[in-house]
Amino acid sequence: MSMSGRPPLDGIRVLDFSRVIAGPMCTQILSDMGAEIIKIENPDGGDDTRKGAGPRVGGESHFFMAFNRGKKSVALDFTKPEGQAVVAKLLETADVLVENFRPGVLKRYGLDHASLQARYPRLIYLSISAYGQTGPLSDRPGYDPVLQAESGMMSVNGEADGEGLRHGIAIVDTMTAIHSVAAINAALYARTGTGQGQYIDLALYDTALVSLGNLGAYYLIGGDQPRRAGNGHFASAPNNSFETANGKIYMAVANQKLFVDTCKALGHPEWAQDPRFATVADRVANKPALTRLMEDVLRTDTKESWAQKLRHLPAGPIRTMKEALDEPEVKRRGMLKTYHHRTAGEVPIIGSNYHFSDTPVDDTRPPPTLGEHTDQVLSEIARLQPSEIAALREKKVIA
Q: Which of 47, 77, 173, 362 is catalytic?
């Protein structure tokens, strides 16, 4: 089967006004899918995460590097009328606009959807906000852990006798990014039939609620708070982390057949006949005894060795970041890539997880330096003359 070689969103142009995680991760995925992303950044410092704490390389933060692969950076002050005029020129050929300012901010500069709709009827305009564009909470800022707290997500995470814990990854931002990509692709498809763009209002709060999934349904249908169980599961066993000779493995033995197979693999088929462990309910009731028996066996070998012996079962080593990302399988899957960055040189970044047979993604282009593509975008897309670009630079509208 021949590959067309062109990524699926080749030819789509996106004007990206977003910063931090949810918006930039969305547009990075669109970039991998072949869309041209024009990232509009504040000439004074750019995306907030460029100045982020933690490891830096070539003057750039690891945080910025994580979410901005393959974009064109334009350092442009759209709070000035001359900047708004440049944005208007870029919008003439743009398919999508993504922004995550607080509701009302872009309206001050005539860049909200209502102001642009009549002039650019084919434009798909996606706003990411904390609590949505309307309503009493819409003016509040949104930070991932606060939304984990407010949505009930934290209440189901953590040790049974401890407090609710937040997820260490910015999981609400991450899921909002993925839902944003889905929404934009759906709107692009709808436009092929209607010829019209549309407005998409995505709230971090709504995304957090959607992600409660079966645990949300557990409360709505049963009326009870799902119980925290740390690394275990309140209604399933053995479903937990277990000690080995050199660290822990995680096993999720969720049904009877898996339990019988696990007992065999650990050299104790008789456990499956033990009345204490006969059913899931019995195993949950006698969890400490079952855990003790299993750990006595598991402690006789390493987590790596057990991962091999139990490879036909849902069991795997609990790895550090180093162990996880140094694992050869990560490279074999094409998930770890090296990017040649303008100031940092060679930089390792996790690549795209999308594998299309006919329209492969292009996740080979590095994150940009601030304003790296200002002149190129202004001359080639906004069609400005060198003298006009020089005048904008003189007035500090661009950098």
A: 173
